[in-house]
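agent: user wants the structure for ATP synthase subunit delta from Microbacterium betulae. delegating to structure tool.
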Amino acid sequence: MGSATTQALAASADALASAQVDLDTARELFAASRAVAGSPALSGALVDPVATPDARSALIAQVFGSLSQTARSLIDRLAAHRWSSSSDLVSGVEELAIRATAKAEPGDVEGELFQVSRIVASSPELEFALGSRLGDDGKKGELIASLLDGKTSAGTTLIVSSLVQQVRGRRVRALLARALRIAAAERGRTVATVHTAVPLTAAQSERLVASLSTRYGGDITLNTVIDPAVVGGVRIQVADDVIDGSISSRLADLRQRLAG
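agent: tool returned. relaying tokens verbatim.
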């Protein structure tokens, strides 16, 4: 990700912070992301460094004239900045849509996305069906929406059904993990994934959240994976940081020392 893209993403997040959005706005942004991804001519024109902001704004008004004023204004603000590549712009619109959903949906989007990712991870057939380049993208969205109907909030269903319509060569689990991080960031939270052999008690979870909040600052979203291979203790991942206090890790370290 280039510096231009990083600055553009920060600016789009700032624009969203002052906007009044709902799930219809988020749905429009997801549709805009698919439109930009599906048209190399459009994405190329929007990232063309020679094009003036006025020219880009006029193009957005022409292409997205049917969208609400709020959605169109957010896309306009996003396209006004420089992007490192057209694929970065597509990802940027998609991120804006995920953030808008997290802002508009009062439910536990992060927790639900994590649970959906676990369901996908447990079913290679489902992940293949959703991530395959074959088949109708719209049908994939309808499939996952029907599976999640009544089980997740409207916002989570919107995110997941929208993402599987625009996989772009990415693994579905990777898409969901990215969406989870973006949604958490929009709500000012940090995601911690904990691998443990047995479920944590409420008291253990509270102590762990307090400890991680002190270490990383801010609120912590705690996602737990039950993994018998851990044997005992816990393994925690926060972004690229891994805190491994599992017995399996200690045994592996001991074996390595004995072998060395």
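agent: one observation worth passing along. The mean pLDDT is 90.
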